[in-house]
Write a structure and sequence with these properties.
The complex is a heterodimer.
Chain A: E1 5-12, H1 23-38, E2 47-51, H2 54-57, E3 76-80, H3 84-96, E4 102-109, H4 118-121, H5 129-132, H6 137-152, H7 156-170, H8 185-189, E5 193-195, E6 198-199, E7 209-217, H9 218-221, E8 228-237, H10 250-263, H11 268-271, E9 274-276, H12 282-291, H13 300-305, H14 322-325, H15 332-345, E10 358-365, E11 371-378
Parallel strand pairs in A: 2-3, 2-4, 9-10
Antiparallel strand pairs in A: 1-7, 1-8, 4-7, 5-6, 8-11, 10-11
Helix pairs in contact in A: 3-15, 7-12
Chain B: H1 26-37, E1 41-45, E2 52-53, E3 59-60, E4 65-66, E5 69-73, E6 76-89, E7 95-109, E8 116-120, E9 130-135, E10 146-151
Antiparallel strand pairs in B: 1-2, 1-5, 3-4, 6-7, 6-9, 7-8, 9-10
Classes of the chains: A alpha/beta, B mainly beta.
């Protein structure tokens, strides 16, 4: 893609355990902030795509009362019941259709409203797995981790190291909910055991929050300062978790391959300056290094050990702290896109990485990352 | 997070509904359950590519066809993934500590192309371990027909 769609504004609310405001006021805060950031008025929005989920909100048509705070009254609006990175996909395609010039994308949810990890259980096959009450998002991720560790030789220490890196990075990100400055792998490994090898600090924490961005067509982007261009995008869907090998994120690789071919990326490890990866569990970041082509298959552990993905490495991953710092369902993948765009614009503050020209952002949906979305972003 | 300084927490209301859902398990899972009442493990097979689904699936995702051939598989299989659970999920969605850990495994039955997630009665488990299904043909609840797995032999 060559200067067809650009990110021209972004905003994130703080991510917190309890926002202590209604969902509507939380969304209004994000919408107003993103319009201000882009320097536009609500009237200029042509189309709005939100990401939210009926089950997480405890009501059907969860976008119904978002008409007011999302600025979508009497406008072209719809929602996606997946991560916001997928809502962005639909907004991009609407702009590419030529019918719209300015789009608002917003992802939000409030973990303080719903019942812990029960919504994840509702993703399971209702006729069998759900009834047996053994699988849930965490136990399924633990099974994924065990298969990956067996195939790759990755150790619990390496997985703990990823979590420590991200929790330390999160200490420099003002919107993160959970952070531990100077975190080390030992502390992560020794945290509350859940499903081996997963401990509490290896699991992304559920929280409240909203994030949003404004997209503009190539034509409309000219009036905005510092547009961040979408150079490529790719997405792919895999089989249900019991019907695919769990040791590889094959749908993420398919998504990345498709995205890279649009973006002209032949060697991601040398052409990508920074990545924001939606790691719902620490081991998924290692699996993503491989699927995103940052290293060879099954070498994610060695790539991490090389230090390449640290803040000062050659390819920093999750300088923001990633989802391990804050995991708002329906928003955390979109937040990865926002963080990558902030890095390109040089606006990431204390967690800014120098010289970021090309960045990868990743979103996922479903148990054990069943569906994956990848963007390549770039500046002028 | 604590309420913002000088501000009362937002009052909470709970949903005044407890909506029940009742899925039909479908003919394929029913056939699987009926088989276990006779001590048999029945899997569906795609007539086009030969992929064997256990638990049985109605549609082969690869061929876009009805997976309506049936095969009987042995109770034996191999552990493809496993975890030691220190917690379980309570009805309110919290993870609560188990009194003693339990093993959950993904088992690929011999002859199947997919896995069943089940409880493995063992102190420890590893990938590649040979296991066998423990059937309970007299179970009143269909979900208890497959009690779990144990080390083979």
């Amino acid at each position: 893609m060559d200067k067809e769609v650009a990110i021209v504004g972004y905003a994130q609310t703080p991510y917190v355990a309890d926002f202590n405001e209604s969902r509507e006021m939380m969304v209004l805060q994000a919408t107003r902030a993103v319009l201000e950031n882009a320097g536009i008025k609500r009237e200029e929005l042509d189309t709005i795509v939100t990401a939210n989920n009926d089950y997480l909100d405890g009501r059907t048509i969860s976008n119904m009362r978002l008409v007011e705070p999302a600025g979508s009254w009497r406008k072209n609006e719809s929602k996606v019941e997946m991560d916001g990175a997928f809502a962005m996909l639909y907004a991009v395609t609407r702009i590419l259709s030529g019918d719209h010039d300015i789009a608002l994308v917003l992802g939000e949810s409030q973990a303080s409203v719903y019942a812990g990890i029960l919504p994840g259980i509702m993703m399971l096959d209702p006729t069998f797995d759900r009834q047996r009450w053994l699988l849930n998002e965490v136990s399924a991720a633990a099974l994924q981790a065990s298969a990956y560790m067996d195939a790759s030789g990755v150790s619990e220490d390496q997985i703990s190291g990823v979590a420590a890196k991200n929790l330390d990075n999160a200490s420099r990100n003002p919107v993160a909910m959970r952070s531990i400055a100077g975190a080390d792998a030992k502390k992560v490994k020794a945290s509350r055991p859940l499903y081996s090898p997963i401990t509490e600090l290896m699991m992304a924490p559920q929280c409240d929050g909203a994030c949003a961005l404004v997209l503009a067509s190539g034509k409309a982007a000219a009036r905005f300062e510092k547009p961040v261009w979408i150079k490529g995008l790719g997405f792919a869907h895999d089989s249900y978790l019991t019907e695919r090998p769990l040791d590889t994120m094959s749908s993420l690789k398919m998504a990345a391959d498709s995205c890279y071919s649009q973006a002209g990326i032949e060697d991601a490890s040398s052409q990508v300056d920074l990545a924001e990866v939606y790691e719902r569990f620490a081991h998924e970041e290692l699996m993503a290094y491989e699927a995103l082509g940052f290293c060879e298959p099954m070498k994610g552990g060695a790539f991490f050990d090389s230090g390449a993905t640290k803040m000062d490495g050659k390819l920093p991953v999750n300088a923001s702290g990633g989802a391990l710092g804050a995991n708002v369902e329906c928003a955390a993948g979109l937040a990865r896109v926002i963080e990558a765009a902030m890095q390109i614009r040089g606006e990431a503050g204390d967690h800014q990485v120098q010289g970021v020209k090309t960045a990868v952002a990743h979103g996922q949906s479903g148990i054990c990352a069943q569906e994956n979305m990848v963007y390549v972003l770039g500046g002028e | 997070m604590a309420a913002k300084a000088g501000k009362e927490p937002v009052p909470r209301v709970s949903m005044p509904l407890d909506p029940p859902f009742a899925w039909s398990v479908g003919n394929w899972i029913e056939h699987f359950f009926d088989g276990m009442k006779e001590g048999k493990i029945r899997a569906s097979k795609c007539p086009s590519c030969g992929r064997v689904y256990l638990p049985p699936r109605m549609i082969c995702e690869r061929c876009f066809s009805r997976a309506d051939d049936w095969v009987e598989l042995p109770v034996t299989g191999t552990v493809r993934a496993c975890t030691k659970a220190s917690v379980k999920v309570a009805e309110n969605g919290d993870m609560v500590d188990l009194e003693s850990p339990e093993i959950i495994a993904m088992v690929q039955h011999d002859g199947a192309d997919t896995c069943i997630a089940g409880r493995l009665e063992a102190d420890d488990a590893s990938i590649g371990m040979k296991v066998e299904a423990v059937l309970n043909p007299k179970a009143e609840n269909a979900l208890d027909l497959l009690a779990g797995y144990r080390p083979a032999g």
